[in-house]
């Protein structure tokens, strides 16, 4: 399932916050309660490359993800470039 980090700015109090979700949905301001704020920016976190020890781990959000991404490990690689190449060639179909 796709996973996003959404960035919001409240139209009322101008505070900024982030929230992770499976879509780029509207959110309510956690500071003043103003509703229906649309993200001004979103980052796709469906697939990640994470440095771990002396290598890199490729993760993908689970198809069963609901309230959190529930990442599944797809592989471990000695370099970031090898991990990127794997992602470029690997399709979830």
Keywords:
6 strands; 93 residues; 2 domains; 11% helix; 3-stranded antiparallel β-sheet; mainly beta
Descriptive account of the structure:
The protein is mainly beta and 93 residues long. It folds into 2 domains: 4-43; 46-89. Helices cover 11% and strands 39% of the residues. The chain has a 3-stranded antiparallel sheet with strand order 2-1-3, with no helix packed on it. The chain has a 3-stranded antiparallel sheet with strand order 4-5-6, covered by helices on one side. β4 (47-52) and β5 (55-61) form a beta hairpin. The radius of gyration is 16 Å and the shape is elongated. The chain starts with a strand and ends with a helix. The mean pLDDT is 93.
Return the string of H and E elements: EEEEEEH
- Which of globular, elongated, flat, extended, rod-shaped describes the shape? elongated
Largest sheet, strands/sense/barrel: 3 strands, antiparallel
The tally of structural domains comes to 2
Sheet-strand content, in percent, reads 35-45%
> How many strand segments?
6
Strand order of the largest sheet: 2-1-3
Whole-number mean pLDDT = 93
């Amino acid at each position: 399932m796709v996973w996003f980090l959404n960035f919001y700015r409240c139209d009322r109090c101008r505070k900024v916050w982030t929230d992770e979700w499976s879509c780029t949905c509207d959110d309510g301001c956690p500071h003043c309660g103003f509703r229906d704020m649309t993200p001004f920016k979103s980052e796709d976190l469906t697939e990640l490359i994470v440095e771990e020890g002396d290598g890199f781990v490729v993760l993908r959000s689970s198809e069963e993800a609901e309230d959190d991404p529930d990442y599944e490990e797809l592989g471990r690689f000695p370099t970031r470039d090898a991990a990127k190449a794997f992602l470029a060639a690997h399709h979830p179909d």
